[in-house]
Amino acid sequence: MSAAARSPGPLRITRIEAAPLFGESPKGGWSAEIRPEDSIHALIAVHTDGGLTGYGSVFTDGRLVEAGLGVLRPLFLGENALEPERVSEKLHQNTFWMGRGGTLTHVVSGVDIALWDIFGKATGLSVSRLIGGRYRERVQPYCSLLMEEPAAMRDVVAAYRARGFTAFKIGWGPFGRAMDARLDEAIVRAAREAAGPSAKLFVDAGASDAYWPHGLKWAIRAADMLADYDVGWFEEALKPDALEDFKALRARSPVPIAGGEVLTRRQAFIPWLTQGAFDIVQPDVTKVGGLSEQRRIAWMAYDFGVRYVGHGWNTALGVAADLQLAAALPDCDLVEFIGGSAYVDGILEQAFTLDAEGWLRIPDAPGLGVSLDFDKLRRYTHAADRLRA
Ligand SMILES: [Mg+2]
């Protein structure tokens, strides 16, 4: 047999570890604001008997991730780490009665991302090549910023524009919450003026927050206002389960309608895509089931003529996964990039940097193409050493 025809492995999974992140979660603008002692993100390491380790990220409380790994352990121990889609599907199919779509789906997301990272490291290929090939070598990041009162909003958008960003999203915070349509408009006007007329600007109402106070009529009025400021999409303008109202809003709104960040499992997206609820769908690779699931959702969206933009901004590994997907889809032209998060900017050996046009180069090194810096990581978790190969 020639060397080219030889398949690597198997590489057996020996253990999977989680490292909850603490202390530096950026403000969420949530009704119950995130505190330093709260963990809402965790990193995952999948260790194998061949010495290769892969890394992933989960958007949920790290204690839930640790508990979820305990439940999943009999299913993943000894599995072949070079078969990410099959192993992840095994975990989904055998947990239908325990947190299907919830914690266990979130945990499988991080495991799946780590398995793709291992598959890439074992084969010497980037994940984007393994999942079908690279349509692009770089992509435009949009800088996600929390809504502020108008003067502060102007300052913060200007600061990130000065750092080189050319696309922005503002969301959550007082927008819609202050019950003051003039304040909402003043915030958006301040952001548009600070971003400049040629920048992309998106608005996120954040209606998946607790007890969102508005409905369809508010969303229609807000969408009309946003059109005056050339806003590129209106995100989570309605409560996240209001399928019929999303369809009505999309039909009526002059600006594109975006959503889907709280949905998990590919199957949950079927009604939203088949019934035309979104112009843009935004699954979160660290919640939805990982790269295996996100890739299929993105392609389903593509076939329905719906744009896909990932929501994996929460850690540098989430961004790394989104970048690989952005390379491997025909029409993905943006990735979300949160402004000022230590979990994105402060845990890699080489942090992401913008090029002269404010775009990100998509790594083409094996796997996710990024390396954790364990000394930096130690500032945010007690469990950094558990992740080490
Ligand atoms: Mg959002």
Could you walk me through the main structural features you see in this protein, from its secondary elements to its overall organization?
There is one protein chain. The protein is of the alpha/beta class. It contains 14 helices and twelve strands. The protein has two domains: 3-124 and 375-387, Enolase-like, domain 1, CATH 3.30.390.10; 129-372, TIM Barrel (Alpha-Beta Barrel), CATH 3.20.20.120. The protein starts with 12 loop residues before the first strand and ends with a helix. The protein binds magnesium ion. Residues 171, 204, 235-236, 261 line the site of magnesium ion (MG).
List the helices and strands and how they pair.
Elements: E1 13-21, E2 41-48, E3 53-58, H1 62-76, H2 84-93, H3 103-123, H4 127-130, E4 138-146, H5 150-162, E5 167-171, H6 181-195, E6 200-204, H7 216-227, E7 234-235, H8 243-252, E8 257-259, H9 270-274, E9 280-281, H10 291-303, E10 307-308, H11 316-327, E11 334-338, H12 342-345, E12 360-361, H13 374-377, H14 384-387
Parallel strand pairs: 4-5, 4-11, 5-6, 6-7, 7-8, 8-9, 9-10
Antiparallel strand pairs: 1-2, 2-3, 4-12
Helix pairs in contact: 1-3, 2-3, 5-6
The structure holds magnesium ion.
Magnesium ion (MG) binds next to loops.
- Which second-level CATH architecture of the largest domain applies? Alpha-Beta Barrel
CATH topology annotation of the largest domain: TIM Barrel
Major β-sheet, in short? 9 strands, mixed
- What percent of residues are in strands? 5-15%
Q: Specify the CATH class of the largest domain.
A: Alpha Beta
Summed over residues and divided by their number, the pLDDT gives a mean of 95
Number of self-contained structural domains:
2
Give the overall shape.
globular
Order of helices and strands: EEEHHHHEHEHEHEHEHEHEHEHEHH
Heterogens: magnesium ion
Computed CA radius of gyration, to the nearest angstrom: 20 Å
Instruction: Figure out the total of helices.
Output: 14
Q: What helical percentage do the residues reach?
A: 25-40%
Low-confidence stretches: none
Q: Let me know the CATH homologous superfamily of the largest domain.
A: Enolase-like C-terminal domain
